Amino acid sequence: MGQFLQQLINGIQIGSIYALIALGYTMVYGIVRLINFAHADIFMFGAYMGFFLAPVMAKIFGGAFIPTIIAAMLITGLLGFIMEKLAYRPLRYKSRLSALITALGVSIFLENFCAMPFVFGPTYRAFPSMIVARNITIPGNLGLVISNVLLLDVGVSVSLMVLLFWFVNKTLMGKQMRAVSFDKPTASLMGINIDVVISTAFIVGPALAGAGGILYGTTYGMLASPFLGIWPGMKAFIAAVLGGIGNIPGAVLGAYVMGISEAFATSVNSNLGYGIAFVILIAILLIRPSGLLGKFVPEKV
Amino acid sequence: MTFLRTHRTITTIIAFVLLYAVFKVLYLTGILNTYYIQLIILVGINIVMTVSLGMVNGFTGQFSIGHAGFMAVGAYTSAMITTTWLHVSTANPWVGYPVFVLSLLAGGLLAAGVGYLVGAPSLRLKGDYLAIVTLSANELIHAILNATEAVGGPRGLGGIPKFTNLEVVFVFAIVSVALMRNYLFSSPGRSMKAVRDSEIAAESTGINTTKQKVFVFVFSAFFAGVSGGVFAHLLQFIDPSSFTFVKSLEYLIYLYVGGAMSISGAIVGPVIFTLLPELMRSLQSWRMVIYPLILILTMIFRTEGIMGLKEFSFILIPQRQRKEVSA
Predict the structure, then answer these.
(1) Is B121 in contact with A94 (Cβ distance < 8 A)?
(2) In Å, how far from its chain's centre is CA B227?
């Protein structure tokens, strides 16, 4: 029982990070119907920004965590904006496949460019510890251990999610986003500036991924290489599909399901952690392709 | 006109034999050393990989991005058969080559089986699910190979007999491309293009789109598997890191820069990209930075790739005969 709860807690921790990445995938997919492969690399970029900014921020502000996460979010948001402007906008009215190929190109470009020795370098880096890790043992005979980093991960990601829900459901821009995601041509006839909406999605999504990158660095204490985004990115995307791609609460639910099942699989066998994501993906495509919270939309001809 | 058609076929065959003879003579006279011959063999393997990827991505309009995974399945299967299980060697070609060919087919069939497992669930659906499924399948195959001690784990599999030579790759590339080209110009091949152009319209004319997509995908995985086997018996050493997603991406770049909607494009792409880096050795470390940029720029400025919809004349079915068919 104690083991079970402990894995559940670990799953919630990793799920919180996946959720921040999955939200960006699902928002962009909802609005431009594009799998933004480069999203995983923006997550990586955010993590590296944490690595470079944390010492600077610690010097300026004393405490490093909050200024670093805000700065990283701003930078990754800017990167997302530039990426959309340069690579995806010229292809908006060409075939969907060419945008997808471009997304893949952008992803590989970011990975390999960042791996160049004069950018981030291909080697392992220790992430600066901004929070002194402390383990809190929960009283009782279950022997549960919760670290303050875990509370921080969950806290930051839940507050960002609440912020996002408020943004999407209560602000004018959020309303426009939902309209564009529902029906792009009609939305533009209603006077919504599609370009602005798409740019916003490409700022907000990457900013969340940047925050996820900082949490990832803080949790694991190291950055393996600029290719570190691939697996978390893939799992987060599968989480978005699991919850119903284009559906914001779905992405969060999918991410937690993914994180928890991964924690359990890893506790059985460390290699199983990779396989479980694939099994979930195939299972959801076979059983319920529209996702847990997605609606089945019949095709009209 | 049967005569014209045969005539064209004969000309094409003579051209290929001449091409082979030129390479062989250049090799025997010492103008091309073993390294260049190896490069030419690689071009042949890459052509088959790219054309088979083009069957799915270019002609059926799906988006498979894990082709190296199928290559890995074929490479490991055929290398295990020839090296670990049957211990054949080039010293005894009369036993060696039949075993080699059978091991290639076994590798291709296993890759096709994996292709079915990956393709069937995702191709039922419209949308881009195939992309993410093939991507994760590629990474998963890589992870499995890394974790399996029986195939050498991360250390790889060595001591594979060198069965692949210029002759093998010539026959292999020509036969494979001819098979795929014939499929493309057949009736199911045309329904494949119909699926690409409009899935709804294709369905309403009675094409079973799911079956068509799955078949092409499995067919393409088969050729990727066989290419993997040929590749393993060329390098004599394979390890999981030769078949990562980066490898798949290279084929995507060959395909889309060459021109995904034409077989000729899928031939031009790998020729350029296999030979070009050799001329610019100094840029080697920049390769994976420059390649994706080329891909992005191609998509923005020439979406249809170098060849567009054009085909070399030896790929096309002769004009006369086509008129007969349409009349």
Answers:
(1) no
(2) 6
- What is the enclosing helix (H) or strand (E) of A136? strand A135-137
**Is A285 within 8 Å of B252 when comparing Cβ atoms?**
no
Give the pLDDT band of residue B327 (cuts 50, 70, 90). very low
- Asked if residue A234 is part of any domain, the answer here is no
Contact between A108 and B129 using a beta-carbon 8 Å cutoff: no
Whether A295 is covered by a domain: the verdict is no
Query: Structural domain tally of chain A?
Result: 1
Residue-range domain boundaries for chain B: 2-326
**Amino acid letter at B129?**
Y
Q: Check residue B10 and give its pLDDT.
A: 84
- Residue A274 included in any domain: no
**Prediction ipTM score:** 0.87
- The tokens for B252 are 């995507």
Residue A71 backbone dihedrals phi, psi, to 5 degrees? -65, -45
Class of domain B2-326: mainly alpha
Whether B246 and chain A come into contact, CB under 8 Å, resolves to yes
Helix (H) or strand (E) holding A195, with range, is helix A194-220
With contacts defined as CB-CB under 8 Å, which chain B residues touch A230? 139, 245
pLDDT tens, position by position, B215-266: 999 999 999 999 999 999 999 999 999 998 889 989 999 999 999 999 999 9
CB contact under 8 A, A281 and B139: no
The boundaries of the domain holding residue A195 are 15-228
